[in-house]
Amino acid sequence: MTRLPAGFVAHVCNVGIKDATDDLVIVVAEPAAASSAVFTRSRFAGASVVLSREHAARATARAMVIISKNSNVATGAQGEANAREVVTSVARHVGCSPDEVLIASTGVIGRQYPMDRLRTGLAALPGAFTNVDATAVARAMMTTDIVEKVASVVVAGSSARIVGAAKGVGMIEPKMATHISLVMTDALLDGTQLDAIFRRVVDRTLNRVSVDGDTSTSDTSVCMASGAAGAVDPAAFEAALDEVMLSLTKQIARDGEGATKLIEVRVDHARNDDQAEVVARSIVNSPLVKTAVHGADPNWGRVAMAVGKCSEFVDIDQEKVVIRFGSQEVYPRQVDDAGLRELSNYMRGADVLIHVSLNTGSSATTMWGCDLSDGYVRINADYTT
After folding, report:
1. Could you give phi then psi for residue 279, rounded to 5 degrees?
2. What ranges do the domains of the chain cover?
3. pLDDT digits (tens, 9 = 90+) for 336-380
4. Residues classed as catalytic
5. pLDDT tens readout for residues 42-54
């Protein structure tokens, strides 16, 4: 069991949103914690996102509610009223103002919360929360996830811990921090400092993961700092947060719907960060690249295609680009049939690196994704039925 950091307790239960698995999580900070949050950029953002975006502006939070198996998206005024009722009920139970409570929802789009079940579940909350199991929190967030996603790191030079719990396997394309996650720490930071660090780390981790190129309507990532372990060195805290968030990022990609392999795409020697990101995203999102990886087919031509279609970058010269699978260069210096067989064996592994040097400058980025299998089609063909 991974324990929550000092200053946090949780309640996890089933209220019957869809099935008999846990579907309601409430995490409480004692006392209120400094907080930072980032949300989806989707124009179909759910009621929970709209409400939490409003509450997150105060940069402190006492509690977060996570409801799985119903996204409360495209549910109109009734959906917004339902989200506010849940938040108000939790605030009343915790003993705080409703605007100190954040809420996230994940699941099917276009269905109202089953409010009779939620009201019954909220009315039955215990007087005091005692659960400190971060794994249970992550498990209750799951929808089509196969495994719960948890990461924990101690901040160097202190006793402070950072613990993250996340869900997300499909409808994953980085447009902020694609999924739902709650990162908790007992380090002492003010809201402004926490927000700056959290956003930097999100940009180089969660904003670099993609499963299928589709952006969720419910994306929510929240970081809360209770301060119970005292002050920490900001640089050490950022390094530890990087470690937690990178772990969650890779766990999301590895558990992608139907996935069998983690793909890491590294693009370096680019003109600037934007060029590196656009090219890396083109590669990691290409169905042809993803299916080649799934089939352990070292077809570097598909990677060349993905680079080449970034036609806005006229300084990319095919004569200067270098493509590698793992550490093996495949273009422009190509391998023979025996080398291709060795590469195929490499690509049968659980982790596949695609490394492209553009040779237009000195910038670099890395993105993470997964292969594309028939399992992805089966899961999403039957999602609501």
Report:
1. -70, -45
2. 8-254, 262-381
3. 999 999 999 999 999 999 999 999 999 999 999 998 887 777 767
4. 178
5. 889 999 999 999 9
